[in-house]
Amino acid sequence: MLQYAGLQNLLLTASVLFSFVLSAALYAGSFVGKKLLAPHFAGGSHADPVYQFFMGRELNPRIGTFDLKEFCELYPGLIGARDEGSRRAAPVWRTDFGSSPLPLAEQLAFQLQ
After folding, report:
1. Does the predicted TM-score (pTM) go above 0.70?
2. What sign has the CA pseudo-torsion 30, 32, 36, 41?
């Protein structure tokens, strides 16, 4: 159990450090060149740099065609919803011996696409 706790702490620390480094790089990169800014920054209504750092200054930060905002926000949420649905469906499959209610099967089918 101690090995798992140590690994969990290491993964949590790495996750926070990666998020901070990525946020700092995106914030600094939004000042270089002509970037499309988020609408609430384009008008100059929010000049607070702390607010800009946490809310994201650039509208769609990209590396080539790779959209960082989509990758960091959308995909983890979709994967988490799929995993949560599968976790909740597992007991139903165990108690009903492989059959499941139709709505549950439809929800899992749409999430696993």
Report:
1. no
2. positive
